[in-house]
Amino acid sequence: ARIARDSYRVPRVIARMYDVSKAETYRRLGIQTISTTDWGVRRACELLTYHQQDSVLSVGTGEVQIVRADVPTLLEGHTVREISAIGEVKIVAVSHNSQTSIPTDGTVLGHGDVVYAAVASSAQEKFAHMLGKSE
Q1: For the chain, how are helix, strand and coil distributed in percent, rounded to 5?
Q2: Which tens digit of pLDDT belongs to each residue from 38-82?
């Protein structure tokens, strides 16, 4: 991966790993890694333990998660602004009746809506609390 990046100037290099204990070494070299085994196990656990809040994508090295969440009844009629926190939780999309759009802060949440939020890893519990749940 390092030779591809440095010698051949490949613009985006990702190394697949089987031994996750070497991830720190790759991170120090500035090489993004993926462990299909680790990812597969985590994704299977997420699917088996779905709690109305599901991590769809991990960004960077996990500092930010794109999270899918069903809008609970208690938040119907409330705005996107009410489940946002500057620097911690940002609603990036809302699906309503199979139509997905990028919301404004004033977008009103309705029955059966699904929100997609960019959530800092340190704010996962805060987002769950905003949705009226505990992790």
Answers
A1: 35, 30, 35
A2: 778 876 765 665 555 677 888 888 899 999 999 989 899 999 999
* Contact predicate 84/91, CB 8 Å: yes
User: CA dihedral in degrees (50, 56, 62, 63; nearest 10)?
Assistant: -100
User: For residues 33 and 15, is the Cβ–Cβ distance under 8 A?
Assistant: yes
Q: What phi-psi label fits residue 62: left (phi over 0), alpha (psi between -120 and 50 degrees) or beta?
A: left
Query: CA–CA separation, 44 vs 41, rounded Å?
Result: 5
Q: Is 60 helix (H, G, I), strand (E, B) or coil?
A: coil
Cα–Cα distance between 5 and 89 in angstroms, integer? 33
pTM here is 0.62
Handedness of CA 7, 13, 18, 22 (dihedral sign): positive
Token pair, residue 107, equals: 């977008």
Topology classification of domain 51-135 = Alpha-Beta Plaits (3.30.70)
Beta bridge partners of 79: 108
